[in-house]
Amino acid sequence: MTGRCHCGNLEIVFETNLSPKDMVPRACQCSFCRKHSTAAISDPAGHVTFLAKDPKKLNRYTFGLGSTEFLICRTCGVYVGAFMPSGDEAAFANVMASALDLREEFPNPPIAVHRTQENFEERQNRRREMWTPATLVQVPE
Ligand SMILES: [Zn+2]
């Protein structure tokens, strides 16, 4: 599956054997996700690549425990996914279904999930299990 922000600066390549009907998007109930009305998907057996054509226009927003970067386009404001570096090379991410080209083809409504009780370690462990192995590519100037 592919996707992009509204202006096209941020691109998503989500390699997965799952189809939209196999997925149940998650509507995280944290304050950030509520403001964006997020519907997150992931596949631990897949891989996601985020490509920033102009890295200066990529906002790697962090808050709270600071363990994860929320990838937002500075030009068009679209939030494409959450990216968690893990160790030297590895990273895990989720993808916003709304930023994918197939966004109209997810038949399952998002389910609300509440994560605010997690501590730092629980959150990292849950993301390593549930999220998609990920790469962030920033095109050099
Ligand atoms: Zn954009």
Walk me through this protein's architecture:
- Helices cover about 10% and strands about 40% of the residues.
- It has one domain: Metal Binding Protein, Guanine Nucleotide Exchange Factor, Chain A, CATH 2.170.150.70.
- It is built from 2 helices and 11 strands, in the order βββαβββββββαβ.
- The two termini are about 25 Å apart.
- The protein has about 140 residues and is mainly β.
- The model has no long low-confidence stretch (mean pLDDT about 95).
- It binds zinc ion.
- The site of zinc ion has 9 residues, from loops.
Itemize the secondary structure elements and their pairings.
Blueprint: E1 2-4, E2 10-15, E3 26-28, H1 31-36, E4 40-41, E5 47-52, E6 58-61, E7 69-73, E8 79-86, E9 90-96, E10 111-113, H2 120-130, E11 132-138
Parallel strand pairs: 3-10, 5-11
Antiparallel strand pairs: 1-2, 2-5, 4-9, 6-7, 7-8, 8-9, 9-11
This protein binds zinc ion.
The site of zinc ion has 9 residues, from loops.
